[in-house]
Amino acid sequence: MASHRFVHLVESELIKLTNWKEINHVLEQAFVSVSNKDKSSGQPYSSQPARSFVHVGDAGALLCMPAFLGNISVKSDSSQSNPAGPAARTSSLACKLITSFKDNPSRNPSLPDIIGNIFLFDETTGQLQATLEANYLTGLRTAAASIVATEQVFLPRIADKSKLVLGIIGTGVQGEFHAMGFMKTHKFVQVKLWNRTKARSEQLKTKLTQLAPNSCNPDVNISVHDSPEECCTNCDIIVTATSSSVPIVFKRFLKQNVHINAIGSGLQHHTELAQDIYDECSVFIDYWNGAKAELATLKSTIVGEVGEVVLKQKVVPSSGITVFQSLGMAVEDAAIGKLFYSKYMEQLNKGH
Ligand SMILES: NC(=O)C1=CN([C@@H]2O[C@H](COP(=O)(O)OP(=O)(O)OC[C@H]3O[C@@H](n4cnc5c(N)ncnc54)[C@H](O)[C@@H]3O)[C@@H](O)[C@H]2O)C=CC1
Ligand SMILES: O=C([O-])C1=[NH+]CCC1
């Protein structure tokens, strides 16, 4: 067999191609793809098993996340040269391989807890097209998944969307991507930060202050807090992005009408929020197959997938506490991998 070349896209290339509107657009399609049961409906569709884990003793794990995603448009209609025409449809075949080693951040030099790469294949020949460094992409797509979930599950019940307060519990990699993505795509009057090590939230505050002039509200107030309770007080939207195996957010911290994107806690999900929240809230998930495998011990009311909400197959509550319990899905990686590869090739073909 003749040898075959593929491109390797590193983080510095990917940063230049970042556009939150396009990312949110492909993530919404990833959600729809898992909930769409009718492949002839013109909607995106997909195939993905629950991910597999290989444990490396107590030290860490290797996760394998393969997916096929059909009938997606990688560009939103409004970002095309002919906005009136339908967005061109494509597919994506990909596999993200990701390692999670909890002691990495405390090594010298420090390493990320999570290290990933996306392998993107030609969906008609199966040939490897590209490998993409996936730490940056995982940050983007996980934040975009929370943004889309918030838009679908929570924002429809908010009459005045100009006075929103965002709280970030855990200002590591994911906390940072979430703060940036939300500020770039929605207007917040205040962004509140809490981290176990306060210096880390002070560092994020400095970064977000620099970002503010290019966000949806240049006058946003960014504040650092001493406790999760102080941080959650008065928040409309909360993101929990920690590796805590014990609850850090309790019902008494919350407004009556609030949405939480609970994205953290690695191999064990749903440990960041207290049971008194789960007793009362409505939970939305990314995919049932993953939830059956990874949320088997969750005691709460799971209403449905975010994609079912987009497809209007599930109704969202008009008040109360909603939680998006984010596991992370392979189709999200297939979607963002294809988007960035397409954008890279487009630029290359234009001679940039
Ligand atoms: N749902 C999804 O799609 C994804 C979820 N994750 C999860 O998100 C979480 C955060 O990931 P990264 O930001 O990449 O990691 P990171 O290492 O950059 O940040 C971890 C954060 O957790 C905090 N933390 C750790 N133990 C804690 C404890 N016991 N109490 C309070 N805070 C604690 C740290 O202070 C830090 O802010 C992890 O649990 C990871 O597995 C990561 C990627 C995708
Ligand atoms: O979806 C993902 O990439 C991950 N979810 C939890 C750890 C990594």
From TrEMBL:
Leading EC class: oxidoreductase
EC code: 1.5.1.1, 1.5.1.25
Gene Ontology CC annotation, any one: cytoplasm
Pfam families documented for this protein: OCD_Mu_crystall (PF02423)
Catalytic activity: (S)-cystathionine ketimine + NADPH + 2 H(+) = (3R,5S)-2,3,5,6,7-pentahydro-1,4-thiazepine-3,5-dicarboxylate + NADP(+); Delta(2)-thiazoline-2-carboxylate + NADPH + 2 H(+) = L-thiazolidine-2-carboxylate + NADP(+); (3R)-1,4-thiomorpholine-3-carboxylate + NAD(+) = 3,4-dehydrothiomorpholine-3-carboxylate + NADH + 2 H(+); L-pipecolate + NADP(+) = Delta(1)-piperideine-2-carboxylate + NADPH + H(+)
One GO MF term: hormone binding
Self-association state and partner proteins as the record states: Homodimer. Binds the thyroid hormone triiodothyronine (T3); T3 binding inhibits enzymatic activity.
Family, similarity comment: Belongs to the ornithine cyclodeaminase/mu-crystallin family.
Protein name in the entry: Ketimine reductase mu-crystallin
Taxonomic source organism: Culex quinquefasciatus (Southern house mosquito)
Name of encoding gene: 6039966
